[in-house]
Structure formats: C-alpha cells, structure tokens
Design goal:
The complex is a heterodimer of chains A (about 550) and B (about 475). Chain A is α/β, with parallel strands linked by helices and about 550 residues long. In chain A, about 40% of the residues lie in helices and about 10% in strands. Chain A is built from 18 helices and 14 strands. Chain B is of the alpha/beta class and about 475 residues long. Helices cover about 45% and strands about 10% of the residues of chain B. In chain B, helix 3 runs antiparallel to helix 13 and helix 8 runs parallel beside helix 9. Classes of the chains: A alpha/beta (about 550), B alpha/beta (about 475). Chains A and B meet through helix 1, helix 3, helix 5, helix 8 and helix 9 of A and helix 1, helix 3, helix 6, helix 7 and strand 5 of B. Chain B: Homodimer. Chain B: This is Glutamate--glyoxylate aminotransferase 2, variant 2. Chain B: Pfam families: Aminotran_1_2.
C-alpha cells in the first residue's frame, strides 16, 4: 500500500500522550447533562421545587384530556432520583454561573450524581471507536488511504462485522435479538469469561441494559400482588420499573456493618413476610458489583443465592453491568451463570437473566446505549413471548450492538492494537481504583461519616450521622434530611451527589451516593471543598 | 420438585395478548425457509437498507468522525473526509458534554433539539420550543412512552385507525388499555370520515371507556394515503369537541408520491386554525430518521414534539424519560443532520441532493409500478400508494380458499401469504396483522425492493396469484360478503 509508510503517526502519538500528559479532556466543555435554554423552562422545574409556582398552571389544566390528574397513576408513582431534584437545582446553578460568574463560592458544577465517565473526561477506547467509525462508512474499507488513518486490526474487525450483517447494511433493522454474528461473538466472549458455553440464541441485544430490565419486569408482573425482591440500597431503575409495571418491590436489606453483605437469611425473612401479606414473589434482583454500595459478592455468597432461587422457585435477575469494575485484589467478579453451572445447575434448575452493558467497565460508553441480557432456563413458550416483546421495538441500535460485541471480545495479545488497548484499559481501571480509595479515605475522615470501601462499581455511599438540629432544620425546610444535606453541599461546593433516600436505606440512617468519576487531578480540590463544607455544616448543626 | 419460577401460564397476560405481526408468523416462517437455503425477498418491514438502498454519504462521514474524534487531529483526515463533514463533526461534538460516549440530557442534546425546533419552524411557519421536543431511541420508543403516560388501565381508550401499524395495537395491549378502532374507507382512497370517528367514540363511551387520545398516521401505514388539509382540520376540530389528545405519527412525511396532497403537519394546521382550538387541542407529533429518503432504521433515532401539554405533565414525561437515562447519541446526531442537511454551496451539497433525489424519485416510480402491477392481477384491487413505503392490495379470496384456510387452521390472508411465500419467496405481512373489515383480506408489502428487481417480483406474484385463483376459484364466480 503506497501510503502505508505514514503508518498512522497519530497512533504512536496517542500512545505517547497517554503516558506523558495528565488526562486531558478532549472536549472539556462545562458539564451539561441538562441545560435549560430559555427562562421559561423554569416552569418545568415546578414539580421538583417546593415552591407554589405549579399551582398557577393548574387552573385551566383539568379540562385537557391529558393532565396529571388523569395520566397513568403508575407514571405518577414512580421515582428516579439519579436525575431528581438536586440535579435540577444544579442545572439552575450552572445557568447562574454562566449568566453571572462569581455569584457562587465555586466556579463549576461537578456532577457526581451519575455514572457517566466520559462526561467527566474519561476517554473512549481507541480501538473500539476505530471499528465503530469504520462500520459507519464501510465503503472506505477497500480504499488504499484507509490504513493511513486506521489500525489494520480495526480494519480487519470492521470487515468481519460488516460481513456478518445481512447485505452489509448497517442502517437496516436487524434481527430483533440483534445481529446473529455479533451474538455469536458475545457468546464466545461469555464462554471465555466463564468457562461454560453460551448460546447466541439466549442473547437479546438491547439499547443499554435498562430496556432489558424493563422487559423482564413487564413479563413477570401481572399485578400489585406480584413482587420482586430488590436490594436496599438499590439502583432506582428497579424501583421505578416495578412501579411503572404495576408490581410490588419486596426489599431485602444489605448489611452496612459487614461491608454491605447480602445474607440469605435476610432474603428468606423478607420472602416469608411478603408471602404472608399475599405477595407472590417472582424474582430476586442482585446487583454485582453493587450499585450504589460497591460490594463484590464472594463466590460462596453467590452459591447460596443461586441455591436459594432454585429452592424458592425465583427467577434470578443478575445485574452485572459493573463486571469489569473490581478494585480490590481479594475479590474477583464471577458471573451468576458461571456459579450456577459450577454447581451443576442447568436450564432445568435455575431460571436466570444476566444483564451486561457497554456503559460501565473501562469503556464507559453510556451514550451509545448498548447492552444485552442472556436468558437461560426459560421455557420455549416464554422465550417466544420475550422475543415478541423485543420485536415490537424491532431492534436495538446497530452501533450499540457492534460495541457490545467489541466489549465482549477486545483485542488480544499479538493484535496490532493490543498494547494501546491494554494501556488505555489499565490506565482507566487503576485510576478508578485510586480514586475509589482516595474518596473513601476522605469521607471516612469527616465527622460523623463512615464509608464502606468501594470494592467495585463506580460509587461511594457514605453514611452521615446527622445531628438532631440538622434533622429539625430539614423538617422545617420540608425535605428529607439527606436531601437537605445534599442541597447544602451543592450550594456550598458545586458538587452534585444523590441523597441516599433515592436508593433506599435503613430508616433513620442517611447516606448520599457520590461517583468516583471526576478526573484524578480534580479530586484533591473536591475533597477540600467537601471537607470544608462538612465542617461548617457540623459546626452549624452540632448539638 | 421445586416450583418452576416462570411458565407460560404465570406471565403477564398483557404480554400474551400483545401481537406484532410485522415480525410474526410470516416473518418467522420466512426466516426458517431462508435458513434452509431458499431465496427470500423480505418485504415485511419498512427497512430500506436491507433491500439495497445505500445510506446517504455525508451523514455517515460526519458520524464516523464523531465516533473517532482523534481522526480530526490526524493530518491524513482529508484523504477520506471532505472538509464540510469535518466541520459538521466538530459542530456536533461541541454540543455534547464528552462526545458520543456520554449520556446526554434525558430529553436529548439541547443543541440538536434546537435544530429540530428550527426545522419545524421552517417547515410550518410557526415557532417551536426545543424544551418541548424530546429525542428518543426511534419514534417507536416515543410512542410507547406517550401511550404509557396516557393509559392507566382498561378504562382508557385510544382511537386507532384500522388498518394501522401494529405498534399501536401491540403497545395498547401491553399497557392494558383499550383500542378503539375507526375504520378507514378503502373505496374512498382510505379516507377518514368524521362520522365514523364519532360513532366509534360513542360506542366506546357506551361501554364505559374514557377515550383519551386519537392516533393518525400521516402518510398512512399500511395504507399510504396522505391526509388533505380539510381532513386534518376536521380531525383537529373533532379532537377539540371530544376532548382528545391527537397523536400525529408523521414518520413518512418525506415520502410523498403524488402532488395533489403534499405533506402538511398536524401542528401547522392546528396553528392555522387559530385560537381557541390552537391553544386548547393537545398534540404530540412523531418523526424519525428511519424512513423518508434516509432509511436509517438501525440507528434508532426519533423525536416527539408536544403542543399544549401542561408543564406538570411534561415533567412526568421527562421523569419517565430520565429512567432510561438518555437516547443514543449517534442517532441524535443523525437527527440533527436530517433536519439540518447540507446547503447549496457546501462541498457535499451536490452529492447529497443527487443521492436524496435519486432515492425519492425511484420510490415514486416503484409506488406506481407496484400499484399497477397489483391492479393487473386477478381478484386483486390496490389503492395507489400516495405516500409512506407500502402497498396494501386487497385480495378477493374465493370461498373455497377461505374454506381451505379454515381447514389448515389459518386465518385466510395468513394462508394466502404463506402460500405466496413458499411459492415465490416473497415475505409479506397478512392484512389481519393491521386490522381490516370483516371478511375483507389484504396483504402489506413494501415498495422497497430495488427498481430493477421490481418487474420480476411483480411477475412472480402474478404467476402465483393466477395459479392460486385457478386452484380455488369456483368458475361460477363468487360473492364476497
């Protein structure tokens, strides 16, 4: 190839930059998960703010066919705190900063409310993006200029993906479970990970893991009498989805004192209590590694859980989206499928849905909406129904499907892109581990705050023992104490976290969830600001 | 033996009730046959790229650059990408907070929503508020979200055209609501009659159903008719009188194959009518990147625009959107590019226009070829495809064929379509999947097979149909109803 001697100077440059520079943000805009455009948008905040502005709209509202008085009550009931009130206030503050800089004791909002790594400067994996770009413009695969811009193994991988797509048409709706060739790749990846075979026909590619969770809830919940066992604290997709689909959430409490341990006897206790109150418990949700709690289950623990589900006839819903985020050497991720198969349990023993996503791990590709569920132990008729549900939406986005296959089969030793891939991956994961440690230590130093280690995932979930005076002040402000703390934290520091009540907690305890995702060089400043704020807060509200 | 946690009996009844024929029995059978080596022509779904339509070059270049922004720094980038694609990629990347890999605002990137609002304003001549435009993973997701907001239970009814695109019936069933049908009149070019609407609503109310919304699909799917301005005015007036929110599925607005009735949006007509109706009637309009001349089905990009929906209700819709975090960002960029295409003077403009015109003109020709082809067949009557992507011929099945279908345990049009599939490899969707009047049978096919393949496909169909009618026709003639 005439142009091959250029050999992607840019790639060598990238490699060097990775080591030499502190991680620069390629698109270091202000954080903008939400950005109100016009001042009239303040009316859209009416629901979340405790002002009375909302009542002004209500007067002529009730004559319309669709109003809050007659919409689906399940929609009214469901909540999702990750993008709730505190975040809405943060957006407003961000607008303030733009319009009138210097009006606040901070000059930027730092969004620590959501596991959105690339919005805080984490860079994507180069190889993955090369392949995705090539799949968008497959006509260049044959061009002689292409190797000057793309690595040869990216070109090769793009070719094999394009060939797996009927008609090489990346813009066509695919099979409703996702492109067969990509499911083959994913199945092989699962097998390599677990040491047990996976069937591509058990895989449903979805727009992120969340739609797959919704599908399962829709399938399982017939009425309020159907219950799903969920960890408390939990990622509020579960509570929201259960509410939307008209079921009941049956809580089981993780034990903060033992590093958020999951006890089977607690599961049993809650199951029995639910049954007594007439609830038919259909499934058990386990998030491993945990969100917001960050614990990584031990294999023994997982075995007990699998046996419990088998004995009690529960579907096991295994949320494993953080499987690549493990930060402690004494723990390892084991998939529930592997654990079940290691026990000798097959399709007749355990009904299992395992969820994976491209949003987390070291790839952090949240905006792509890629993910899948692997379903095993379901009868043929039920699988038909699941297929039917998937088909109404036709298929998930193709780019996300491709990315899911790349995540489950990344570059191998010897591949041209392997070294760069490995460096990028290890850089991100080791940095996450350091940030988890730094923030955990910082939180533990705060008065009245205890924080369990983040063994995995992307969050810290410290507990604050709020003084009675603070709790009283919260009541006076007509808001939950942890929300009160988080609002104050935001106004003082610009740091956005989510109050623990958004995830559930033992009544009378207060927490907040903070991500470990801000860039490493920003962490010391964040720690200082929070430490300073906390001291002032405690000074103000200490008895 | 421990209880099986999940069996067919114990799953949600609504799931069982829900049907989606577009990827139902015929499609599954076609896939089976394809695996066995038979050549299948899939005309069951509006999926242009699957039938050889090429993606437009410019948008793909822009999105590829957004996927791999490090290319922008590469001195060789100009070898593969024109300068305006490079500029556009930078433009869209600057709208994101971290590139394509970050969750955007749950409503979609504000910058893209602004471009959509500007597009709507140019199209209709009335202002559009980006705050009331939500991007979604395909228009289907938007439809599902809105229906979920409206439907609380069986007591909530949605007026849906028959025949309809079965996303509506499937979703209403999944949500446990009630579908209130209104029949389009085949002999009047699939026309919509307000008296028919009124009758349907009254019947539903008599049964205790609260009819909350009305769906129009314009241009129609599967029927292809384009609503006239007068018709749209009648519909809006009707919604005003009967207190219904209008759901305007306008995903085929770029696919118009006649000049008598160009596309006119429900929003424009609503605003033209003026107050009080323009301030009272609630309207939600849907659009997509999957159809038109773009055909980017696999991207899953769409939006809905809300008109006259109260802030509190918008908040609830926002809340539900936020649970899914955000729509996929690459598709949002496709949407931006669709509403904001290359302009005269841009480097890529000529190629863009050439590609787009080529597709639209060919679709127009294929709509004609197919309609005429069907009309030349025995016992087949077909309205012209004025818009969208489908042909929906009526097949007058002889009584003996209907009897044979019954014997085979199949609905008559399913029976016909299966035989068609087995004989010719043409995979269609039986009319029963869309709804039709009792005793009247149709099939839906797309007009998407490549133009050069069309004559052979129509010949193949004609041959099969002749043989079928020969086999089942009673030579004394037959009566239809």
């Amino acid at each position: 190839m005439a142009l091959s001697f250029f050999m992607r100077k840019s790639s060598a440059l990238r490699f060097r930059n990775l080591f030499n520079r502190s991680i620069a943000v390629l698109h270091n805009q202000h954080q903008i998960p939400h950005q109100s455009i016009t001042s009239s948008s303040s009316s859209s905040l009416s629901r979340f703010l405790s002002s009375s502005s909302s009542s002004s709209m209500a007067s002529s509202d009730s004559s319309f066919p669709v109003t809050v008085h007659n919409i689906n009550p399940k929609v009214l009931k469901c909540e999702y705190a990750v993008r709730g009130e505190v975040v809405t206030i943060a957006q407003q503050l961000q607008e303030d900063l733009k319009a009138k800089p210097g009006t606040h004791p901070f000059d930027e909002i730092i969004y620590c409310n959501i596991g959105n790594p690339q919005s805080l400067g984490q860079l994507p994996i180069t190889f993955f993006r090369e392949v995705l770009a090539l799949c968008d413009i497959p006509s260049v695969l044959e061009k002689p200029e292409t190797p000057a811009l793309f690595s040869s193994d990216a070109i090769e991988r793009a070719w094999s993906i394009i060939d797996a797509i009927p008609g090489q048409a990346t813009g066509a709706y695919s099979h409703s479970q996702g492109i067969k060739g990509l499911r083959d790749t994913i199945a092989k990846g699962i097998e390599a990970r677990d040491g047990f075979p996976a069937n591509p026909n058990d895989i449903f590619l979805t727009d992120g893991a969340s739609p797959a969770v919704h599908m399962m809830m829709q399938l399982l919940l017939r009425s309020e009498k159907d219950g799903i066992l969920c960890p408390i604290p939990q990622y509020p997709l579960y509570s929201a989805s259960i509410a939307l689909h008209g079921g009941s959430l049956v809580p089981y409490y993780l034990d903060e004192a033992t590093g958020w341990g999951l006890e089977v006897k607690e599961l049993k206790k809650q199951l029995e209590a639910a049954k007594k109150s007439g609830i038919s418990v259909r499934a058990l949700v386990v998030i491993n590694p945990g969100n917001p709690t960050g614990q990584v289950l031990s294999e023994e623990n997982q075995r007990d859980i699998v046996k419990f589900c088998k004995t009690e006839g529960l579907v096991l819903l295994a949320d494993e989206v953080y499987q690549e985020n493990v930060y402690v050497p004494e723990k390892k991720f084991h998939s529930f499928k592997k654990v079940a198969r290691s026990l000798g349990f097959g399709d007749n023993d355990i009904t299992l849905a395992s969820f994976q996503s491209v949003s987390k791990g070291y790839y952090g590709e949240c905006g792509k909406r890629g993910g899948y569920m692997e379903i095993t132990g379901f009868s043929a008729e039920v699988r038909e129904q699941i297929y039917k549900m998937a088909s109404v939406n036709l298929c998930s986005n193709i780019s996300g499907q491709i990315l899911a296959s790349l995540v489950m089969s990344p570059p191998k030793v010897g591949d041209e892109s392997y070294e760069l891939y490995r460096a990028e991956r290890d850089g991100i994961l080791s940095s996450l581990a350091r940030r988890a440690k730094t923030l955990e230590e910082a939180f533990n130093k705060l008065e009245g705050v205890t924080c369990n280690k983040a063994e995995g995932a992307m969050y810290l979930f410290p507990q604050i023992k709020l003084p009675q005076k603070a709790i009283d002040a919260a009541k006076a402000a007509k808001t939950a104490p942890d929300n009160f703390y988080c609002r104050n934290l935001l106004h003082a520091t610009g740091v956005v976290v989510v109050p623990g009540s958004g995830f559930g907690q033992v009544p009378g305890t207060w927490h907040f969830r903070c991500t470990i995702l801000p860039q490493e060089e920003k962490i010391p400043a964040i720690v200082n600001r929070i430490t300073e704020f906390h001291k002032k807060f405690m000074d103000q509200y200490r008895k | 033996m421990p209880p099986k946690p999940l069996d067919y009996e114990s799953i949600n009844e609504n799931v069982k009730r829900s049907q989606y024929a577009v990827r139902g029995e015929l499609y599954l059978r076609a896939s089976e046959l394809q695996k066995e080596g038979k050549k299948i022509i899939f005309t069951n779904v509006g999926n242009p790229h699957a039938l050889g339509q090429k993606p437009l070059s410019f948008p793909r270049q822009v999105v590829a650059l957004c996927q791999a922004p490090f290319l922008l720094d590469d001195p060789n980038v100009g070898l593969l990408f024109p300068a305006d694609a490079i500029a556009k990629a930078k433009h869209y990347l600057s709208m994101t907070g971290g590139g394509l890999g970050a969750y955007s605002d749950s409503r979609g990137l504000p910058g893209v929503r602004k471009e959509v609002a500007e597009f709507i304003q140019r199209r209709d001549g009335y202002p559009s508020d980006p705050e009331l435009i939500y991007l979604t993973d395909g228009a289907s997701k938007g439809v599902m979200q809105i229906l979920q907001t409206i439907i609380g239970g069986q007591g909530d009814g949605i007026l849906v055209p028959v025949p309809q695109y079965p996303l509506y019936s499937a979703t209403i069933a999944l949500l446990g609501g009630s579908l209130v049908p209104y029949y389009l009149e085949e002999t009047a070019n699939w026309g919509l009659d307000v008296n028919e609407l009124r009758q349907s609503v009254n019947q539903a109310r008599y049964k205790g159903i609260t009819v909350k919304a009305m769906v129009i699909i314009n241009p129609g799917n599967p029927t292809g008719q384009c609503l006239s301005e007068a018709n749209l005015r009648e519909v809006l007036q009707f919604c005003f009188e009967e207190n219904l929110v209008l759901l305007g599925d306008e995903v085929y607005q770029q696919n118009i194959y006649q000049d008598e009735r160009p596309f006119i949006s429900a929003k424009k007509v609503l605003m033209d009518i003026g107050p009080p109706i323009s301030k009272e009637v609630q309207l939600i309009s849907f659009h997509t990147v999957s159809k038109g001349y773009w055909g980017e089905c696999g991207q899953r990009g769409g939006y809905f625009e809300m008109t006259n929906i109260s802030p509190e209700t918008v908040d609830q819709i926002y809340k539900v959107a936020s649970i899914s975090l955000s729509p996929n960002v690459p598709a949002q960029i496709f949407m931006g590019l669709m509403v904001n295409p290359p302009k005269p003077g841009d480097i890529s403009y000529d190629q863009f226009v050439r590609e787009s015109k080529g597709i639209l003109e060919s679709l127009r020709r294929r709509a004609r070829i197919m309609t005429d082809g069907f009309n030349s067949c025995r016992n087949v009557v077909c309205n012209f495809t004025e818009g969208a992507m489908y042909s929906f011929p009526q097949i007058r099945l002889p009584p003996r064929a209907i009897e044979a279908a019954k014997q085979a345990g199949k609905v008559p049009d399913v029976f016909y379509c299966l035989k068609l599939l087995e004989a010719t490899g043409i995979s269609t969707v039986p009319g029963s999947g869309f709804g039709q009047k009792e005793g009247v049978f149709h099939l839906r096919t797309t007009i998407l097979p490549a133009e050069e393949d069309m004559p052979a496909i129509m010949d193949s169909f004609k041959k099969f149909n002749d043989e079928f009618m020969e086999q089942y026709e009673d030579h004394r003639g037959y009566s239809r109803m």
